[in-house]
TrEMBL record:
Species the sequence originates in: Yoonia ponticola
Listed PANTHER family: THIOPURINE S-METHYLTRANSFERASE (PTHR10259:SF11)
Reaction equation(s) it catalyzes: S-adenosyl-L-methionine + a thiopurine = S-adenosyl-L-homocysteine + a thiopurine S-methylether
First-tier enzyme category under EC: transferase
Name assigned to this protein: thiopurine S-methyltransferase
Length: 188
């Protein structure tokens, strides 16, 4: 993911949205590069751990149904991604989707994809997907084929496969899987 960051061609102080962010190390990595980061995560414990691990003390406030943990350059909302509006999210330059789309069951994915497009005004996305035999493992992460991601996003974006590679050792050390980094650029 981090390897493909340059494909986004972002300004030095770009604001990057990390949906379903957990306590992802991507956040500290993006901040270290000068980006501003906005995330959303259901688990308040994960968000508290994220700030603890960054050794940053956040200011906590309530914004409607969401709790905002904010510090210099970083806004992390605690709550359901579907409760996040474009107005609350604010302007974003890019979306960093690692382990977010692939964490959602099939019945939520089209709602999630449409919601992301709507609240980010079709911001450029970097999305990582996995493809494997879903009968071999129930997921998450779920298998997302090329057809599936195109069904979700081709109406809003041009999709570029930046890299597809084998997951070393497969999942659970035995299920062959590939990982694809997708660059989604607003359709012209
Ligand atoms: C597989 S984890 C990925 C975390 C992070 N992106 C990473 O790379 O480490 C998926 C996360 O999505 C969060 N999540 C699931 N459904 C959500 C929702 N509807 N709104 C916000 N967060 C959600 C879970 O709490 C979990 O932390």
């Amino acid at each position: 993911m981090q390897r493909h960051f340059l494909a986004l061609n972002l300004a030095a102080d770009a604001r990057v949205f990390v949906p379903l962010c957990g306590k992802s190390r991507d956040i500290a990595w993006l901040l270290a590069r000068g980006c501003r980061v906005v995330g959303i995560e259901l688990s308040e414990i994960a968000v508290q751990q994220l700030f603890d691990e960054m050794a940053v003390v956040p200011v906590v406030s309530q914004i409607g149904p969401l709790t905002l943990y904010a510090a210099d350059g970083v806004d992390i909302y605690v709550g359901d991604v579907f409760a996040l509006t474009a107005k609350v999210l604010g302007q974003v330059d890019a979306v960093f989707d690692r382990a977010a789309l692939v964490a959602l069951p099939a019945e939520l994915r089209s709602r999630y994809a449409a919601h992301l497009v709507a609240i980010t005004d079709s911001a450029t996305q970097l999305v990582v997907t996995f493809t494997y035999d879903q009968t071999q493992m129930s997921g998450p992460p779920f298998s997302i084929s090329e057809r599936m991601i195109k069904d979700l996003y081709a109406g809003s974006y041009d999709l570029h496969d930046l890299q597809t590679q084998d997951v070393p050792g497969g999942f659970k050390g035995k299920i062959p899987a590939t990982e694809t980094a997708w660059f989604l650029q607003a359709a012209s």
